[in-house]
Write a structure and sequence with these properties.
The protein is mostly helical. It has one domain (21-132). The chain is built from 2 helices and no strands. The chain is rod-shaped and about 145 Å long.
Length: 133
């Protein structure tokens, strides 16, 4: 891609037309003008070709950008799916943990009751032994 720093440089690079109409120059002047016009045509053609190449390059860059956007959208979608799945797994694990905790608390309560009964039975037994003795 050609980058022009100013329009003056662009104009300065174009061949100049020799527009003198003196009789001394005659046919030479016409020939020079024809050469200048041909030179300008080749410059214009070159610029047109450069514009075409630049447009093709821009089109390919837009295609590449669209591909990148699509890949980014797919990656984002997959990441969101993973986040959602992990949140669901976390919620399920939390529910399981809470249920396990409740079960343990119930079991601990049952164990405390069993120990109290056993303690009361031992106390009753000792009392009976003391009375028998």
């Amino acid at each position: 891609m050609v980058a022009w720093s100013s329009s003056e440089e662009q104009i300065g690079d174009l061949p100049r037309l020799n527009c003198t109409n003196s009789n001394d120059e005659g046919d030479e002047s016409v020939d020079e003008n024809k050469k200048d016009v041909d030179g300008e045509d080749s410059v214009v053609d070159g610029l047109r070709q450069q514009i075409e190449r630049d447009q093709e390059h821009i089109t390919s860059l837009y295609k590449e950008l669209e591909e990148e956007r699509n890949m980014s959208a797919v990656a984002t979608s997959k990441a969101m799916e993973m986040i959602t799945r992990l949140q669901e797994e976390k919620a399920a694990l939390l529910m399981d943990a809470m249920q396990y905790l409740r079960m343990m608390e119930e079991q601990a309560g049952d164990d405390v009751e069993a120990l109290e009964k056993a303690s009361n039975l031992l106390a009753d037994r000792e009392e009976i032994q003391d009375l028998e003795a």
